[in-house]
What does this fold into?
Amino acid sequence: MKTSNKILLGFVIFAITLQTTCFVIADNYSRVHNTKSNPLAPLKEFTLDESFSNLKITNHARVTVKSSEQSKVSIIGYKDTTTVIYNVQIKNDTCFVSISANENVSPNQFITIDVSDLKNIDIAKNSNVSIQGNYHSLNVLNRGGRLDMNNSFKINKLSLQSSENAKNFIHHSDSLELSLDQSEAFIRNINKTLDLKMTNSKITIQQSPLNQINIEKDNSSKVNLY
It folds into this structure.
């Protein structure tokens, strides 16, 4: 390649890189600026008069679940938001959380549900669910979403089935029964027992003084124990 062509090619690559960098900086600035000028605020709040023990969450929802003596709902978003995208319906002991049809999912609109006696949670693909509070036992089905049970969560017994490239982050459980199928899990502070079944999955276990651990896995699954 001629020297002049090399110089021209180098200039083109530099220009493209510079332009891309400018777009990223402008986009980040726009996001920060919009958040400061239009802060998040409660859009809708209401109590749930009917009790339920099951929670079913549909695609793309962003949900925080809290243990509480009173069941209620709070939807958060930008102050000038005109449309609340979440629907909440209770039927046959199940609370259904869904997003309105034909609505774009806002990255800054999410829902918090306080519930008094939750037993089962069903998480759909691409949903983000955070669970907070103290629980005696929970059964969770994660079908391709992200599940966070971190520092503000504690449970005696957790049973989790995970599939469809779901991701799970679990802290503070006495006993954990975990089934992973094409999924990932990061767990820590599991204090007593861990029963684990894995198919084409990955798990990382940290700071867990287990008394008993049982693992069934195929050759494609990986266990990292620290």
Summary: Residues 1-37 form one domain. The longest helix spans residues 3-37. The chain has two domains: 1-37, 39-225. The chain has a mean pLDDT of 83.
